[in-house]
Amino acid sequence: MSDLPPLKYGRVVGRFLANIADGPDVNDTPDFVPLAGTVTFTAGAPKVLVASAQPDPATYVQLPEYYECQLDEFGYLTWRGGRGIRLVAPNGDTNPTNWTWRASFNLTYQGKPVRLDSFAFLVPPYVPGPNPEHPDVDATGLVDLTLVSPVPASNGEAVVRGLSVVAVRIVGDALVFELDNGDDLPPVTVPAIPAASAAAAAAAASASTAGTAATNAQNAVNSFTLGIGTVTTGPAAAAVHGGPPGWTLDLTLPPGPTGPAAPDATASGKGIIQLAGDLGGTAAAPTVPALAGKAPVVHTHPSTDISDSTTTGRSVLTAASAAAARTAIGAGTSSLAIGTAAGTACEGNDARLTNTRTPSPGTVPYDLSIVVCGKDTVRAVGVGDFPFGVKLQRAATFTSWTIRAGGADASGNLVVEIRKNGTAVSPTSTITVAAASQVAGATVTGSWSFAAGDILTVAITGVGTTPGKGLIADILGQA
Known about the structure:
- By secondary structure, this protein is mainly β.
- The protein contains 5 helices and 31 strands.
- It has helices at residues 145-148, 192-205, 210-222, 311-318, 322-329; strands at 8-13, 17-20, 31-34, 36-43, 48-50, 58-60, 68-71, 77-79, 82-83, 85-89, 101-109, 112-114, 119-121, 142-144, 165-171, 174-179, 188-189, 225-233, 237-242, 246-253, 280-281, 286-287, 368-378, 390-391, 396-405, 413-420, 423-424, 431-434, 442-450, 455-462, 469-478.
- Strands 4, 7, 8, 9, 11, 12 and 13 form a 7-stranded antiparallel β-sheet that branches.
- A hairpin with a 2-residue loop joins strand 15 (165-171) and strand 16 (174-179).
- The longest helix has 14 residues, at 192-205.
- It is elongated, with a radius of gyration of 43 Å.
C-alpha cells in the first residue's frame, strides 16, 4: 500500500552553500560553494490517527531515518534523485489536526563538519502550478527551507555600544579623560594635584629639608586615590568630589549609536506587537481584557443556568393562534392539518410510511466475497478453486475490490484481476501486491459495470516465489 487516502501532502525544497574567501577565479569576490551531507525530517506528532483512511481507519508512526535527504552536487535538497521531498500536511482529516516538522542537518564541506541548528516549520498542502513541466512555478503551499528558517532578531531599539574612557592624563592641576572616539571630556580640577606639586617644589628649593620635603611630597602623591562614582548618558561632563585622600569621579558620557529598529511580529518570526485592540497590560505581562468574564470553550451549563426560553422559543410557547405558531417555527402558510394533499402533515400511522417501494437502480448495496483459493490451496496462476464464478442476477456496478491471502509468498508479487465473461474488465482492475502486504490485504478502486447474466470471476495472473495458501476477494458494489 503506497498511499493512505485521504491524507494530503506538502512539498519541501532547499539549497545549502558554504561561504569561503575568493578562490582562483577571475574576480576577487568571496565564493559560495555547495555543501554536502544530509537533511533529516522528523514529524512533531509521535503518532497520527487517520479515522477516515481507506479501506479502514489507521494509525501511523513516522520513521525519521527513512526521511533522510541528500544534498546534490549543487547543494540542492534531493530525494531519490529528484529535488525536494513530499511530507504529510496536517489537516482536518488527521488527528492531531496540526503539528510542525523539524529539519535536522548533518552537513560537511570538504569532509569537515559544518554546524547548522535544527528548526521547526509548518507544512501546508501543496498544489502544483499550471505548467506540468515546472509544477513549482505559481504553486501554492511550497515550503523553501531558506524562507522558513528562523534568524536572530532585535528586541527593539537598543544601544549597541556607548563611548568609554580609554586614557587619563594630568594637565596642570586638572585631569583630562580621553574617550575611545578620540574626543576629550572637559578638564576636571583635582585639589590634590596642586598640593603635590607645591610639596615637590618646596623639596627642590631647600636642600636642607630636601629629604623631608621629598617624603612629604611622595606621601601627598601616594595619598591620592580616584574611584568611579555614577556614570550616566548625556552631554559630556565629569566631576570630582570627596577627599582627601580618596576622591570620586562622576561621569556623563554621550550615548553611542543605536541599533536597527525591531521588526513587527509575524506568524513565523518574533518581533514587536502593539498593545491595542483586545490586548492590554505591559510588554512584560500582556493581557487580553476582552476575554474577561468569558467562559472557556469547555464550560458547560447546568439546568439551573437556563431561567427562560429564547425570544423565538417564547413565541412558540405563548402563541395565541395557529398562525402565530407557524410563523414562530417558520412553517409559512402550512395549515398543519393531517392529510395527503400538499401543505398538510402526515400522521404516524399513515399507510404511506409502511408501504413497499421499489428502490431506484444503482442504490442498493450489492457486495460479494469470492473464495478464489481455499485455506489449504497453494496459489497458482488461474481461477483457483472457484472456476464457475458468480452469474449476476441483476445489473450491478462495482467500485472497489480487496484481496486477502491466508499466507504470504516468500518474496515477489501476487497479481490478481477481475474478469467479466472470462475477459479482464476495463478500465484495468489488476491488483499487484508485494509479499509483505498480502495477508493484510490490498484494495483497488474504480468503476466496473456488469449486466444481468454476466459471469464475474477472479483470476490469479502472477505469483511470487514459494507461493502461499488461500485467497479471498471482497467486492463492493451497488445494484
